[in-house]
Design a protein that fits this description.
Layout (H helix, E strand, L loop, with lengths): L1 E6 L2 H11 L6 E6 L9 E2 L7 H10 L4 E4 L2 H5 L2 H7 L4 E2 L7 H4 L1 H11 L6 E4 L2 H11 L3 E5 L8 E4 L2 H12 L11 E5 L4 E10 L3 E9 L2 E3 L3 E4 L4 E4 L6 H21 L5 E11 L2 E8 L7 H7 L4 H10 L13 E9 L11 E2 L2 H5 L4 E5 L2 E4 L2 E4 L3 E9 L2 H12 L7 E2 L6 H5 L1
Parallel strand pairs: 1-2, 1-4, 2-3, 4-5
Antiparallel strand pairs: 6-9, 7-8, 7-9, 10-11, 10-15, 11-14, 12-13, 14-17, 15-16, 17-22, 17-23, 18-21, 19-22, 20-21
Helix pairs in contact: 1-10, 7-8
């Protein structure tokens, strides 16, 4: 098959790495790709939001199957455009991608179908939102309704912080159209976990669990980011808890979307809080997580491509996947200053030395080539990923690899996996 992966981050590098190993793959392209992806696929200079360019390229190159990585082109309707052109793809339509592109849509769906989640309110008016905040008190969570690259959520420990988040979104237009509405939620206490499942519109095929680290600095300090590291599996996700998540959250959501005439096809990523009252949905993503994909792909023993095709074909009820027993961990190396202002173009050395370590794969997230050098070209730049017989072994391998990277302008957290390792 001739494949096109859309996107240029660490998630797409992990997907290309997995798809390049499939015996079904005869040609693999990635648009736009990055310096690391170029080792797995032919990169083409088409932006992920150039829907006309992507559809045109898929036609010209007789692409058999398109795998859409990021949320933005899904929300913009890339899958709808590919469908109209008769090109098969993996990912939800724009209507189904509302599970990620509108937090208010998800909260209302949960309310209608008794799916456990935090109490909430939706607001476009700043004064009404501020009045609701004051009535609820802190701690409380303020979220931009739309897509904000993982940076539209404020877990406020004080009313002042919560009010500032509301004003940033509704008065200062910090998130643009994505923040023209905010969702204000009850603060949920517990432990977060990410859960992934393939969905073909009707059937659900469980994948695996992972745990992300959203805060920029050690000890879960600093601002929220797109994710500074992850590990899989998450020990908190026991078989009993997994069945509860499927029965109370994932399957009712899939049934509700199908009943509404907007069936979800793709990977459904449930961000969960495990509370004293059981699992509750924090939010959905309509694609593989980033950096969670980077720990799922090394653990997947089966060929990824047939699974993605089964999603497209509605055949997951006749499908299964095998997983490695090993644990995987990924450490994000980011440009100093991220998630705020950071420099691009700084040179990175030591990549081959890091990747030479046993069990280590270096996925590129925000890199490009400048002559014979790899340079930083984003906020999150590298994903140093390792597998091991235990999480502690994987962690040790990953940080040994991190220490071989020569990038004075980068930083990382040194405590990825601390919750599981603390057990």
């Amino acid at each position: 098959m001739r494949l096109l992966v859309v996107g240029g981050g660490g998630r797409e590098h992990a997907l290309c790495w997995a798809l390049a190993g499939s015996p079904l793959t005869t040609k693999l392209y990635c648009a736009p790709g990055n310096a690391g992806i170029a080792a797995e696929a032919e990169c083409v200079a088409i932006g992920q939001m150039d829907l006309d360019g992507l559809v045109g390229f898929a036609r010209e190159q007789r692409i058999d199957f398109v795998v859409v990585g990021p949320e933005q082109p899904l929300a913009a309707g890339l899958v709808d455009r590919l469908d109209a052109a008769g090109i098969a793809s993996f990912g939800p339509t724009a209507a189904a991608a509302r599970l990620e592109s509108s937090k208010g849509f998800v909260k209302d769906l949960c309310a209608r179908h008794a799916i456990p989640t935090a109490r909430y309110g939706r607001f476009r008016d700043s004064a009404a939102a501020l009045a609701y905040l004051r009535a609820q008190g802190a701690p409380i969570v303020v979220k931009a309704d739309g897509l904000a690259a993982g940076k539209g959520v404020t877990v406020a420990t004080s009313l002042d912080e919560a009010e500032a988040a509301v004003r940033d979104a509704l008065e200062q237009n910090r998130f643009g159209e994505a923040g023209h509405e905010v969702v204000i939620e009850e603060f949920l206490a517990g432990e977060e976990v990410s859960y992934f499942a393939l969905v073909d519109g009707t059937h659900v095929l469980p994948l695996a669990s992972a745990q992300d680290h959203k805060r920029a600095h050690d000890g879960d300090q600093g601002p929220n980011t797109g994710g500074m590291g992850a590990y899989s599996p998450a020990p908190i996700m026991t078989p009993a808890l997994e069945e509860a998540v499927l029965a109370r959250i994932v399957r009712p959501t899939v049934a509700a979307m199908a009943a509404a005439g907007t069936p979800f096809k793709g990977v459904l990523y449930a961000g969960l809080m495990i509370t004293a009252d059981g699992p509750k949905l924090i939010e959905y993503n309509a694609r593989f997580g980033d950096p969670e994909c980077q720990v799922l792909m090394p653990r997947l023993k089966s060929d990824l491509l047939p699974a993605l095709l089964a999603v497209r074909d509605g055949a997951l009820d006749r499908f299964d996947l095998r997983w490695r027993d090993e644990a995987a961990i990924t450490v994000v190396m980011a440009a100093k200053g991220y998630p705020d202002a950071y420099r691009r173009g700084t040179p990175i050395g030591g990549l081959d030395a890091a990747a030479a370590l046993d069990g280590v794969t270096v996925f590129h997230a925000g890199t490009k080539r400048a002559g014979d050098q790899v340079v930083a070209d984003g906020g999150r730049v590298l994903n140093i990923t390792a597998v091991g017989a235990s999480l502690s072994e994987a962690r040790d391998r990953a940080y040994r690899a991190v220490d071989r990277i020569d990038w004075p302008d980068g930083f990382c957290r040194r405590d990825i996996g601390w919750r599981a390792l603390g057990r």
